[in-house]
Structure formats: C-alpha cells, structure tokens
Amino acid sequence: MNESIFETLEQWRVVDRVLLWVALVVPLAAAAGYRALRERPIVRQWRHRWIMTCLLAPMPFVMWKIYNAVADHYGLESVFGMLVNTLLFGVVTVLLALVNFAVYAVLGPDSATPAREGDSGLVGGSGADAGPEDTAGDSPQRPPISDREASGTPPSEPS
Predict the structure, then answer these.
(1) Distance of CA 82 to the CA centre of its chain
(2) Contact 19, 61 (CB under 8 A)
(3) How far is CA 119 from CA 124, 129, 140, 141, in A?
(4) How is the chain split into domains, by residue range?
(5) Are 64 and 19 in contact (CB under 8 A)?
(6) What would the DSSP string read from start to end of 106-119?
(7) Which residues contact 159 (CB under 8 A, 6 or more apart)?
(8) Assign residue 63 a region: left if phi > 0, alpha if psi is -120 to 50, beta otherwise?
C-alpha cells in the first residue's frame, strides 16, 4: 500500500496503453476527418499536414518502446545508454524532417491550383483545364479563397 503513483503507473503500464491508443486512434481520426472534409479548399491546400499527422501519430509509441528497450538493456544510470537514446532520437528526428520536406514538396499548398469558374468546384479542377497562359482572357480567374471564406463564417457587417 506504500506504492507511489509512479510505481502504480509502471505496474499497470498506463503510459504504454495511452501511447498505443494514441498511435491507433489519431491516424484513423485524421484519415476520417480528411475524407469527410477533403472537398473544402483549405483542407486540400494543407493535405500534407493531414498525411504527416497520420504518419507521425504512432511515433511517440515507437520511440517510447525503443527508449525502454535501450534503458532496460544498458540501465537508466548508463551514460552509454543515454548516448544511444540521444543518437537514435536525433536520427529519427532528421529522417522525419526529411520525410516532412518531401511530402510538403509533393503535396504542399503550391501544388494545388486554384479553381476557376466553370470547374467542378474542386481545387485543381477536372484535370483537363488549360493553364493560365492558355486562357488568353477567355474567363478571368477567381481570386484565391481566404481562410474566412473557406471556413464558412459569414462576413462581419460594418457598424
């Protein structure tokens, strides 16, 4: 009965369970949210963030398991074990940053073309649209949609 809260948490493996649930639920919730909201221009503009959320949500659980394996093997007091964990976390951070840059380069906001009048309403149109140099004044392009317009909030009236 003299157990501390930390001993109880470790005995019941609460951190492991919470991180496992986060690793399972967050990617599914993000994918479902993206699927439900993908027609909105602001969601399609920032789709790389949705993808990175799905990719990165399991990482705390994975890194927690790696940290515990290294700490169990070398001990919590080991300088070498701390160095191994530091190097592993550093390498994973650099790799995830590279993945983030690659996903952003492919799916970033610059890759989405603004929709024009007569399009299907989706960002980027139907795929058979001519570029801005091919329109030659046939139809003017719409200005980019602001965050307020994309969120659906009504404009405030001046008093």
Answers:
(1) 29
(2) yes
(3) 8, 8, 13, 11
(4) 5-111
(5) yes
(6) HHSGGGSPPP-TTS
(7) none
(8) alpha
One-letter amino acid at 75 equals: G
The share of the chain scoring above pLDDT 90, in percent, equals 48
Per-residue pLDDT of 47-86, as tens digits, reads 899 999 999 999 999 999 999 999 999 998 999 999 999 9
Rounded to an integer, what distance in angstroms lies between the CA atom of residue 120 and that of residue 126? 6
* Of 137, 2, 120, residue with least CA distance to 129: 120
Contact 30, 52 (CB under 8 A): no
Phi (first) and psi of residue 52, to 5 degrees? -65, -35
Render pLDDT for 24-45 as a digit per residue (tens, 0 to 9): 999 999 999 999 998 999 888 8
| Confidence at residue 110, expressed as pLDDT on a 0 to 100 scale | 72
Alpha carbon 75 to its chain's center: 34
Q: Which residue has the tokens 């570029």?
A: 131
Structure-token pair, residue 140: 């003017």
DSSP string, 11-60: HHTHHHHHHHHHHHHHHHHHHHHHHHHTTSHHHHHTHHHHHHHHHHTTHH
